[in-house]
Write a structure and sequence with these properties.
The structure holds four protein chains of four kinds. Chain A is an alpha+beta fold. Chain A has 14 helices and 16 strands. In chain C, 31% of the residues lie in helices and 16% in strands. Classes of the chains: A alpha+beta, B alpha+beta, C alpha+beta, D alpha+beta.
């Protein structure tokens, strides 16, 4: 049930509108209920071939030899595609906006970096014949030690997952192995806080699980072009990615999509389009490449897992005075979009609260698992879980009602946020008040009277003195991103200085066999009083 | 007594759009000779309602009924560039582009109408039902259809418009993280109520109450779809989902919808939602975007409710019955906290 | 490769096709008949997007060997409309905003039809049971349940 | 190579075809074989079907009931005389799967499937199979132990004795997802009462070992006793004895061992 609270912030709106604000029926509803909405796979093409990929059985291995002779002779096989057949067999998605280095092949050549990585693509008359040919491909692997834990991956001597980033971390600003946020002096504030609470949080990977799996159908079109029916969530992203990988002008392609059976972030990576088009180019026939459900679940990119450590200082009156965060994004074997998730996450710190001292280090870490990508709430969902569990614990620690605790610490108009921009147009307090009202959760009068539009700014608008990390290298003229359309000369790559991993409490074993139940950990640091 | 009830809360905010490459989107709006408009986009509708919300934005801006607008998405030959449908950017970024394009088209439409009515375009207004008339003199009126016919066959005008919306890239200071990550933020607070079985660790959702602030609910039914479905996904993330049940050890990954756990229709609970509207200064009609943040408050609210019910903190997602049971056993039984 | 001739009723119309051995009914309907309303969601029996009715019974077309429907009557969403008018269930789904991406909708509607054809006034629990084999990732199920109850309650006229 | 479908009028001919071809699989309801084909299992190149009406026969009139292997769960649910099997039948899949899936197929369904078979194990069912060498009856326990070696034999029917009362047979599937979810564990209990005391109790468990198994220690705890709180507690605490559950996507071995006693206690004492 949904209720519009038009009474709140009414003075900031003009509600005298014709179409806006109406619950008008969806333009696509009639198509949906009659089954006539056209998804990428709802196109029947004459003589369509089927593409399937041979996936790595190893999490980390050198490929010694690939033998496709028997597969090539298998019935119904039209074409075997190897990495060498891919014109530009190295890419990273955000290279289109010059963010990050090319680090991922379409088809692995000398090494596989996760179980399920595509090595060979087979185009055949039928799916069955493609499956039969897959069984005949022989791949000789030399297994390498694999790393699956983000903190293990940062230890000296850890296996190098992705040689483009030999430290197993994405490189920020050509300098750092993490994205950082510095606002005020968190260490000094922690030293004088009434209570300090340090906790570890672990977000799971998540599969997007759209009911329609990833896929594309590519077909030779008139005048040397290719028509591509696609499930992509980002049409031009996919067009430009295909143009780069296949080394042809982008107007070679006519992409048609726009009606997609759920995405949630899982259909940005342009995994099926390049191989489907290449298959069509090499066979002259329409080619479909659609993930099966197990492929979608295990080898389609998930939301990356995140591990987050939060150390907070809180005063007896409930004011949070310092928040120090270290977060690790598990990017899997390649960058995809996790590099940006870390930036977005750093900007999100310390959550929707005005905390005068904030310190954040956010790492994008490579491990030998399926590369992660964007998902609904990208870069933020896990951090919100951590922050909000932490806020509940802090409220408990100081004996405050958790709703009132949030209102007390909520950011308000005019406050300075940790990424050094003034908070405007805030509404956290009102959300808490209305949710409390709906849930019949009692709030004291002073908290009912609080407002996002009152009592912000002033001393809360100040950027506090922030100590610099003298030990760290300085980058003088940071150029983090430019669009590829800027035609910048390629930037010079420098090795980032390695900083020692900060000392942390030992993480509990991630296996349920030695459970990481929060209870004992929480009680062990519960009430660490400094005075 | 094996089942314990508890309530937990969480409050969050969420940035709208990305700070990547300016995060641009374009739109083209044009009229056919009958005064019916087409919006050409390359943006994707993956269920969130892109076609529908941009249709309403276009109709409102043009001043025509929504039935007179049709949105065509995702053809790279006809739709202009868009970064894509993610990062809660659709309503805000694409909506702004459509608004700009519709404004330009409206300008031409009003000029054409002015020529037909022999008045100054500034003296005209739309009635939202397909007519344009002189302000204060509704009888001096012309239909958008007649305007379109005149523009096409008599005046030689194209009733069309181009729009782009871009937030210039904000460089990130490598030392301090200083940046402008977003121009506006949506907000939410959610209360979750759960039952926890202290012998099995099973958690059942009882109800949710929430308040979401979204700038403006351009279409409350579409907003409701996002918030109800998104909260379901939040419950799913909190209690059920993972493609790696023993993360970081990569074993026993689910292969089908029986092994990949998501709440079924028998696991859902009542959810009472309030929507607040504090318009974003740069949003189309003030709108932000509800698409992603709707799930986020649910995860911690559920975790906090479990603590309230049985006194254990589960900081690892998903909060499986096993983790709850292990924690309860480790503390020597359930310790219900004061009811709230 | 020899093809197997196959004849059945598709939404009231006799159709004849030739299938390969092992072809499932979903492929036969989509690629040989051209009825794109049943969708591929998993091929495993777990999602229900390919649901159709065979002689009035709800089945998963991806797990049905095509040649087993010889001589039988298949209903898909393509045949649900009553002439130019929407079926009450289709109307109810629309009125209740019970579709977002629309990909699960054909299967949901067939599962709902299988229920209402047998049980015109189901309880909420019976509705939940009836759609329990169908995955929806967008809506959270609530609007779908409400739509089916509304259609059953006759609050939606054809 | 496309798949060859061979359809026979009689079960014995189908059994003959199965036993002579290692790549042949019998197609019942399709939930196992068609899924395997869809997912690219190329070890199957022949699909064998039988149109034999005996395979879909239900004989539920007397004290001993017989279900043809091709009987679907939906048909069990439609049969009033089979009320004691309605709970296990309803716990399988959603409506479409129940319209397709068969009693015979369920005997072969790997974990986390095969819940109906848990009920049959508790009921001490007999499985009638036809091999290349003729038909024979096998106790279900023996059948399950040798299940991996049953390729080439065709299940014809399953029979069991009807429980004396609705109280005498209890079934519960513990699933995370409602109303349709994979089994974390599945429990079935047959509790014949003679003179107020339990005689020849059979407790069967699903997902507690590589195949469905009996909880013999729990059965012993019940034997000769009345179903009071102390007896129930004794059976519950013995529930995990002799089990060997595994970790899977739905739960860990540790969790299964922890909760099997709780759920057995609840089942035996009639608690939710």
């Amino acid at each position: 049930m949904l209720e519009l609270r038009k009474d709140i912030f009414a003075d900031e709106r003009d509600d005298n509108l014709n179409e806006i604000g109406k619950g008008t029926q969806r333009q696509d509803m009639l198509g949906h209920v009659t089954g006539t909405s056209s998804f990428f796979n709802d196109h029947k093409l004459q003589g369509m071939l089927h593409l399937k990929v041979v996936r790595s059985t190893q999490a980390h291995a050198r490929i010694r030899r690939i033998d496709t002779t028997e597969a090539e002779r298998s019935a119904g096989v039209r074409r075997i595609i190897r990495g060498a057949d891919v014109p530009v067999n190295l890419n990273t998605l955000l290279s289109l906006i010059n963010f990050g280095k090319d680090d991922e092949p379409s088809l692995a050549v000398d090494k596989v970096r996760y179980k399920g990585e595509p090595i060979i693509a087979i185009v055949a008359d039928s799916e069955r014949e493609a499956f039969e040919a897959i069984a005949k491909v022989k791949i000789d692997y030399e297994p390498l030690p694999a790393v699956f834990d983000v903190e293990d991956a940062l230890k000296p001597g850890a296996p190098v997952v992705n040689e483009t980033y030999p430290k197993n971390t994405f490189t920020y600003h050509e300098t750092y192995d993490h994205q950082r946020l510095r606002f005020g002096d968190a260490d000094a504030a922690l030293a004088t806080a009434d209570h300090v609470l340090e906790q570890r949080y672990q977000m799971s990977p998540i599969e997007h699980a759209p009911t329609e799996t990833n896929g594309a159908i590519a077909a030779p079109d008139t005048n040397g072009r290719y028509v591509v029916y696609t499930s992509t969530q980002a049409l031009f992203f996919s067009v430009d990615t295909c143009a780069k990988i296949l080394d042809v002008p982008s107007n070679t392609f006519h992409f048609i999509g726009g009606t997609v059976g759920g995405g949630f972030g899982g259909k940005v990576d342009t995994l099926t389009e390049p191989l489907a088009i290449l298959g069509a180019m090499l066979t002259g026939r329409p080619v479909r490449y659609m993930f099966g459900r197990e492929e979608e679940m295990q080898y389609g990119p998930p939301r990356g897992a995140e591990r987050i450590y939060i150390k907070d200082g809180v005063m007896r009156d409930g004011r949070v005075v310092a928040r120090k965060i270290r977060a690790y994004f598990d990017s899997g074997a390649y960058t995809r979009l996790s590099s940006y998730a870390a930036v977005k996450c750093a900007a999100h710190l310390p959550g929707p609260y005005t905390i005068p001292n904030v310190y954040g280090d956010v790492y994008c870490v490579f491990t030998n698992r399926t590369p992660a990508t964007a998902m609904r709430g990208f870069g933020v969902t896990a951090m919100d879980f951590a922050i909000e569990c932490q806020m509940d614990k802090l409220a408990h620690l100081v004996g405050m009602d958790p709703m009132e605790f949030r209102i007390l610490n909520a950011y308000r108009d005019g406050d300075m946020k940790a990424h050094r921009r003034e908070a405007k147009n805030t509404a956290l307090i009102e959300c808490v008040q209305v949710a409390a009202e709906k849930a019949k959760w009692p709030l004291r009068e002073e908290f009912k009277r609080a407002s996002s539009r009152k009592d912000g700014g002033g001393s809360r608008a100040v950027i506090p003195p922030t100590p610099t990390d003298s030990s760290r290298a300085r980058s003088t003229n940071p150029v983090q991103q430019r669009t590829s359309y800027d035609r910048l000369p390629p930037t010079v790559t420098r090795e980032p200085p390695r900083e020692p991993p900060p000392t942390v409490p030992p993480p509990p074993s991630p296996r349920p066999a030695a459970p990481s139940h929060g209870a004992t950990r929480f009680s062990s640091v519960f009430g660490t009083r400094r005075r | 007594m094996t089942r314990h009830r508890g309530r937990g809360i969480a409050s969050i905010n969420y940035p709208i759009g990305m700070n990547l490459g300016g995060d641009p989107s374009q739109a083209l709006v044009h009229s056919n000779p009958s005064g019916k408009f087409t919006v050409a986009l390359s943006s994707i509708d993956l269920g969130q309602g892109m076609k529908s919300v941009t249709r309403q934005i276009c109709a409102e801006t043009l001043g025509v009924p929504v039935e007179d607008v049709y949105v065509d998405t995702a053809d790279s030959d006809t739709g202009p560039h868009c970064m894509g449908s993610f990062a809660s950017r659709g309503t805000h970024r694409v909506g702004n582009a459509v608004m700009a394009a519709a404004r330009e088209a409206r300008g031409v439409m009003m000029e054409a109408a002015a020529e037909e009515l022999e008045v100054n375009a500034a003296d005209l207004e739309t009635d939202g039902r397909g007519n344009i008339h002189v302000k204060g003199a509704p009888h001096r009126s012309i239909s958008t259809k007649d305007v379109a016919i005149a523009a096409q066959f008599k005046q030689g005008k194209t009733i069309s418009g181009r729009g782009i919306f871009l937030v210039p890239l904000s460089e990130v200071n490598p030392e301090t993280g200083e940046m402008s990550p977003a121009t506006c933020y949506a907000h939410a607070c959610l209360v979750a109520e759960v039952d926890v079985d202290d012998e099995t660790g099973e958690v059942a959702m009882v109800r949710m109450d929430s308040a979401y602030e979204l700038g403006r609910a351009l279409n409350p039914r579409l907003v409701e779809q996002q918030l109800v479905g998104g909260a379901w996904m939040g419950v799913s993330h909190a209690l059920y989902e993972t493609p790696e049940p023993y993360y970081p050890e990569p074993v026993h990954g689910p292969r089908d919808f029986v092994e990949y756990l998501m709440p079924g229709p028998g696991d859902i609970c009542p959810h009472d939602i309030a929507v607040l509207e504090r318009p974003a200064p740069d949003g189309p009609f003030g709108a932000k975007g509800p698409g992603e943040m709707c799930a986020n408050p649910v995860l911690p609210a559920v975790a906090n409710a479990i603590f309230n019910a049985v006194g254990v903190r589960i900081d690892d997602l998903p909060i499986t019955p096993e983790k709850v049971l292990r924690a309860i056993k480790a503390q020597g039984g359930a310790r219900p906290q004061p009811r709230r | 490769m020899s093809k197997i001739p196959l004849q059945f009723r598709h939404n009231g119309r006799e159709v004849a096709i030739f299938v390969d051995g092992g072809t499932n009914l979903l492929v036969a309907l989509r690629e040989l008949i051209g009825d794109m309303t049943p969708k591929f969601g998993c091929g495993q029996g777990g999602c229900g997007t390919c649901s159709v009715l065979v002689d009035g019974e709800l089945v998963l077309s991806c797990l049905t060997l095509a040649e087993t429907v010889a001589g039988r009557s298949i209903e898909t969403l393509d045949g649900m409309k009553q002439g130019p008018n929407l079926h009450p269930l289709q109307r109810a789904f629309a009125d209740n905003f019970a579709a977002q991406c629309g990909y699960c909708t054909p299967g949901m509607l067939m599962a709902a039809k299988a229920l209402l054809d047998r049980n015109p006034s189901p309880s909420r629990d019976e509705v939940i049971e009836a759609i329990s084999g169908n995955i929806c990732r967008c809506t959270g199920y609530e609007p779908i349940i409400n739509a089916i109850l509304a259609a059953a309650g006759g609050r939606i006229s054809a | 190579m496309a798949v060859t479908v061979k359809t026979f009028p009689s079960a014995s001919e189908a059994a003959g075809a199965l036993s002579s071809d290692r790549s042949a699989r019998y197609l019942g309801g399709g939930t196992l074989v068609m899924r395997a084909l869809n997912e690219g299992d190329i070890s199957i190149s022949t699909v064998v079907r039988a149109l034999d009406q005996a395979l879909t026969r239900i004989d539920a009139s007397g004290p001993r009931i017989t279900l043809g292997a091709g009987v679907t769960f939906a048909r069990v649910l439609a049969e009033r005389d089979l009320a004691f099997l309605h709970a296990p039948a309803r716990s399988i899949g959603g409506p479409a799967v129940r319209n397709m899936g068969t009693i015979g197929g369920n005997l072969f369904a790997p974990t986390p499937y095969g819940d109906f078979t848990v009920a049959l194990l508790a009921l001490d069912a007999t499985v009638a199979v036809q091999g290349g060498f003729g038909a024979r009856d096998i106790p279900i326990e023996e059948f399950l132990q040798a299940r991996d070696r049953q390729a080439g034999t065709l299940v014809l029917s399953v029979s069991c004795t009807r429980p004396a009362s609705s109280e005498a047979f209890r079934y519960r599937k513990i699933a995370r997802i409602k109303p349709k979810g994979g089994s974390v564990i599945t429990l079935a209990a047959h509790l014949p009462i003679s003179g107020g005391r339990i005689a020849s109790a059979r407790i069967a468990l699903g997902s507690m070992a590589p195949t469905q198994i009996r909880a013999r220690a729990a059965e012993r705890a019940l034997e000769g006793r009345s179903l009071d709180a102390a007896t129930v507690a004794a059976a519950a605490s013995a529930a995990s004895e002799g089990t060997s559950p595994s970790d899977n996507a739905l739960g860990s071995a540790w969790y299964r061992r922890e909760i099997v006693g709780v759920h057995l206690r609840r089942l035996l004492s009639g608690q939710e």
